[in-house]
Description:
This protein is α+β, with helices and mostly antiparallel strands. The protein has a single domain, classed as Immunoglobulin-like, CATH 2.60.40. 27% of the residues lie in helices and 34% in strands. The protein is built from three helices and seven strands, in the order H-E-E-E-E-E-E-H-E-H. The protein has helices spanning 2-16, 87-93, 116-132; strands at 21-30, 35-38, 41-45, 48-51, 56-63, 70-76, 98-107. Strand 5 and strand 6 form a beta hairpin. The mean pLDDT is 82.
Amino acid sequence: MKRLTRTVLGACIALGLAGCVERRFFIESDPPGAFVYxxxxxxxxxxxxxxxxxxxxxxFMLVKDGFxxxxxxxxxxxxxxxxxxxxxFSENLWPFHIQDVRPVLYQMQPMSQTNTIELMxxxxxxxxxxxxxxxxxxxxxx
Length: 142
């Protein structure tokens, strides 16, 4: 009985010490300091180290004053040790810690300057088109 108890206890300790896979994004932007949002949730400012749970498609939004807002989709494919069937061993039985770090760099573009003369011309044309539309008479009451 003592032998069985020791074996079960040893197996539990061994499984408890078994490694796991840590998945992380390392997000950088050029220029640095952009605010990063994922699905509308604020994650932080670049450079940013954030964990993820699953492999697949991730949508990010990067915002920085003076630069155009950048909406990007990143597809993360699983490495060989996270493929179906092999993932059980890497997640539960492999005795070491595995890190899957995905570095991504996003290039942000400076905000374009609006041409105020062109903007005023377009506004004037739109106003003239709006004034040329005939208005319908108010509905008559019976």
